[in-house]
Amino acid sequence: MLKGLAAVPLLASPVFTKARRAKKLKIIKPKRLKPGDTVAVIAPASGLTQESFDKALQNLESLGLKTKVGKAARGINGFLAATDKERLDDLHWAFSDAELAGVWCVRGGYGAARLLPDIDYDLIRKNPKILIGYSDITALHLAVSQNTGLVTFHGPVAASELSDYTRKHVTNALMNAAAPYKIEISEYNKTQDSNLFKTETVVAGKGRGRLVGGNLSLLSALAGTPFGLADMKGKILFIEDVGEQPYRIDRMFTQLRQSFDMRALAGIALGVFEDCNPRTKDTQTLSDVVKDRFGNLGIPVVYGLSFGHIRDQFTFPVGVEAELDAGNATLTLLETGVS
């Protein structure tokens, strides 16, 4: 040890993660939620104002659920809700408490990826529960799925607006799940004037495979780490983002292209990339970037499905078998994500 430096605990070795990912894990489906169930509300990334947090709890209660709040979930620690240890403790508590039927992330923001090396994946695997959220929660979806086999849910955070469309699809995914289940474009999204809501078939065709994906910024940030996308052959990749310029999206798409063979995918489903128009007219549009980066892969690709940082969003069970019909802009879940 260098003189003058205090001993500090080492982070969990990523070698464990690599070793676990080398094995093909059995898919684990959590139990479906029922009215009256209690769910943990945690903030594994950023925090919320007290007013917004109270509204988030009301959202979950409107679904017929009871809530139990993590010790650190109401905190604010700069751009995080709390320290890494406090947020990690809340995650472990949520999975270890037998009275809790699910784990609902209150918001995304930033910071979930900081927890990944120290998560007790054996604890999660032995206590499978619904884990739901999106945006920065993508980091948890990738790591938990790859290290435990647990189906997790890319869907609204507790603070999301629960429109009729969002409410219908999240309850159908978590409580009333049946298969096959076809998901179509929100009628509200079809009425929006923004070109970013326009559905566009980039490459027509159908593809079947297990669902994996999430927020583009997180997918690209984790590329090359033990928690990045892996074993993508035959998978359907879904991607969304918000507030990024087309050149930045191009860079992140390119990073993904160079981190694994995208031609091996069964298809690519892109959500609504809200607020991603170029700020100057003399540059490529988002549509240009999507066509350039994904149009030559020889697989079905569609833009504008109803998910992302938008009002109306459906819920993906990450890890289940699905069929993407790029020509008709539909996604059909071929199995439920819950037992």
What would you note in describing this structure?
This protein is an alpha/beta fold. It is built from ten helices and 14 strands. It folds into two domains: 25-160, Murein tetrapeptidase LD-carboxypeptidase, N-terminal domain (Rossmann fold, 3-Layer(aba) Sandwich), CATH 3.40.50; 181-333, LD-carboxypeptidase A C-terminal domain-like (Glucose Oxidase, domain 1), CATH 3.50.30.60. Residues 1-22 have low confidence and may be disordered. It is globular and about 50 Å long. The strands form two sheets. An eight-stranded mixed beta sheet has the order 6-14-13-8-9-10-11-7. The chain has a six-stranded mixed beta sheet with strand order 2-1-3-4-5-12, with helices on both faces. The longest helix has 14 residues, at 246-259.
Topology:
Elements: H1 14-22, E1 38-42, H2 50-61, E2 66-69, H3 84-96, E3 102-105, H4 121-126, E4 130-133, H5 138-148, E5 152-154, H6 164-174, E6 181-183, H7 187-190, E7 200-203, E8 206-215, H8 216-222, E9 236-240, H9 246-259, E10 267-270, H10 286-294, E11 301-303, E12 316-318, E13 321-325, E14 330-333
Parallel strand pairs: 1-2, 1-3, 3-4, 4-5, 8-9, 9-10, 10-11
Antiparallel strand pairs: 5-12, 6-14, 7-11, 8-13, 13-14
Helix pairs in contact: 8-9, 9-10
Please give the oligomerization state of what you see.
Answer: single chain
Task: Describe the largest sheet.
Answer: 8 strands, mixed
What strand order characterises the main sheet?
Answer: 6-14-13-8-9-10-11-7
Low-confidence stretches: 1-22
First-residue to last-residue Cα separation: 50 Å
How large is the count of helical segments?
Answer: 10
Assign a percent range to the helix content.
Answer: 25-40%
Query: Could you name the CATH topology of the largest domain?
Result: Glucose Oxidase, domain 1
The assigned structural class equals: alpha/beta
| Global geometry | globular
Number of E strands: 14
CATH superfamily of the largest domain: LD-carboxypeptidase A C-terminal domain-like
